[in-house]
Amino acid sequence: MDFCCHRWTLLAASLACLTLFGSLLTQWPSLMQMSPRPALQVIINTTNTIVLVWYWPFASSPSVEGNVCRERFGIHNCTLVDDQSLFSQADFVIFHNRELIQSQQRLPVHLTRPQEQRWVWLSLESPAHNGNLKPFAGHFNRTMSYRRDADMYVPYGRLVPHDFGTGLTVEDYIPKKSSLACWVVSNYAPNHKRTAVYNTLKTIIPVDVYGGAFNKHLDDQTLLPTISGCYFYLAFENSISRDYITEKFWYNSLVGGAVPVVLGPPREQYEAVAPNDSFIHVDDFSSVEELGEFLRKLAEDKQRYASYFNWRLKYTVKRFADWRERFCRICPKVSSLQTQKVYDDLDAWEWK
Ligand SMILES: *[C@@H]1O[C@H](CO)[C@@H](O)[C@H](O)[C@H]1NC(C)=O
Ligand SMILES: *[C@@H]1O[C@H](CO)[C@@H](O)[C@H](O)[C@H]1NC(C)=O
Ligand SMILES: *[C@@H]1O[C@H](CO)[C@@H](O)[C@H](O)[C@H]1NC(C)=O
Ligand SMILES: *[C@@H]1O[C@H](CO)[C@@H](O)[C@H](O)[C@H]1NC(C)=O
User: Fold this and answer.
1) At residue 151, does pLDDT exceed 90?
2) Is 271 a catalytic residue?
3) Residues 174, 246: one domain?
């Protein structure tokens, strides 16, 4: 990162002013309300990479007080801020797509963008749910997505090797089972491919269904205990697109302890992120009937069923649950993000 003494002095001075007057001015009206969030408790060090979150995704508002990247995630030389007045100091500015396409937020195109500043387009949704990206042509320098070819790869989950032996056997990892197959769905649409598969599958084997669509809501406390009692979990994605493998796979199935039956991108894309024997792919079968028969037999074959848990001996699932961690992780990659880049046609990238 380029920096100079100028920048530091100026910033230190302006920060001091802002802290004295700015916090009084901006906090004053809210002082009488419930605990206002103190402004500018962030330690700005301009030798650091400065990552500015222009607004938080889904109106979440985690704290960035102190040196959050270092203190929480052990990432050094990295400052995460969410104060728009720091725009001119930021090396990266992050924009979450949802709020842009819903016109709740706008790109600050009226501001003069520092030469080296990079704008980051962020979405964890599939193309079908990202709206029209044509208006954003030429604005973004980097993409942050679950796509493996994004500049900043932020998968819903990943497997990390255990750093020590657990002394457990595969069987120790298999929860007690009481149901054959389970499916949790909140967004039920008759025209989804997954709905067609479910409708046929339930004529072959029993499928326990949960979720808003079936008036059987599971909350955070009941979700995993319910799924862990199922031999198989239908990890059916809401749309089928490249690398779109969500918490249905990583969390509901793998963490939950049910073997995932996946409907989503092709098998190779799952194999790029998980062992080939950790899941069953709908496309492996020439018909849903064949899939159903396979699942029924597999549940009866203890040894073969257990082989789907082999990965547990080597890996644990790591979920990226915290937006702040995703953003702090930009910093260690800065040197590989040096080159000039502009997404002249973000929409085309999205659909490619
Ligand atoms: C800024 O960070 C650098 C590198 O981590 C460190 O050497 C320097 O002392 C820091 N400066 C301030 C004012 O904290
Ligand atoms: C942080 O930056 C300083 C100064 O640029 C450098 O010496 C140090 O190695 C960096 N630390 C890490 C963990 O990258
Ligand atoms: C699965 O992957 C392992 C190595 O990771 C390989 O040895 C094995 O042949 C693969 N099996 C299939 C069916 O592709
Ligand atoms: C970022 O994108 C803008 C176009 O919106 C471009 O002018 C600028 O040179 C790009 N910067 C980098 C560092 O790629």
Assistant:
1) yes
2) no
3) yes
Q: Residue 316's beta-bridge partner residues?
A: 160
pLDDT surpassing 90 at residue 337: no
What DSSP letter does each residue of 297-329 carry, written as one string?
HHHH-HHHHHGGGGGGGTEEEEE---HHHHHHT
- Tokens 């042509």 locate to 137
Ligand 4 pocket, Cβ-based, cut-off 6 angstroms: 116, 118, 138-139, 141, 340-342
Give 41's pLDDT tier (boundaries 50, 70, 90).
Answer: low
0.70 exceeded by the pTM?
yes
Nearest ligand 4 atom, CA 138 = 5
Are residues 67 and 86 both part of a single domain? yes
Q: Is 40 left (phi over 0), alpha (psi -120 to 50) or beta?
A: left
**How many angstroms separate the CA atoms of 46 and 59, rounded?**
27
Residues 310 and 332 in one domain: no
**Ligand 1 contacts CB of residue 15 (under 6 A):** no
pLDDT of residue 43: 61
How far apart are alpha carbons 240 and 249 in whole angstroms? Answer: 14
Domain that holds residue 162: 158-319
